[in-house]
Amino acid sequence: MTERTGRCLCGAVSFTLSSEPLATRVCWCRDCQHLAANGTVNLLVAADGLSIRGALAEYSKTADSGNQATRQFCPACGTHLFAKSAARPEFRIVRAGNLDEPSSIRPTLNIWASSAPEWACLDPQLERVEQQPVPPQPRPAGSQA
């Protein structure tokens, strides 16, 4: 595993991923569409494999899944960086566009595809999940992907 790093637009918040993503997916839920005016590419990571430097602001609401979701962003520039669910505290969502090398990952599925607008360009080579997929099992500490 090569460490991945990233940051917000202004650089006030930076992060390091020390483990491989558990999943990389394009999310078409309405919340992600509001964030990006499109689907968003997200990494699902083990919370203990993400280290964050800098202060974060938060916004919480009930997500389409029914779970309490907290989105975390840079209070200076507003860049949306992370999300977490009260139902699954062992995971974090990292927005792939904030990686220093976003091409180091590749999405494998579209989630919440039932919420995608008619004009959405869903890659037909990616697995399609109509709503929230079953979460993967976290990898044991120190394991490789």
TrEMBL record:
Cited SUPFAM superfamilies: Mss4-like
InterPro entries, per the entry: CENP-V/GFA (IPR006913), Mss4-like_sf (IPR011057)
UniProtKB keywords: Lyase, Metal-binding, Zinc
Region (Disordered): 125-145
Identification of the protein by name: GFA family protein
Statement: the UniProt record of this protein carries the keyword Metal-binding: yes
GO molecular function, one term: carbon-sulfur lyase activity
PROSITE patterns: CENP_V_GFA
Residue span, CENP-V/GFA domain: 4-120
Protein origin, superkingdom: Bacteria
Family: Belongs to the Gfa family.
Keyword Zinc: yes
Any Pfam family the entry gives: GFA
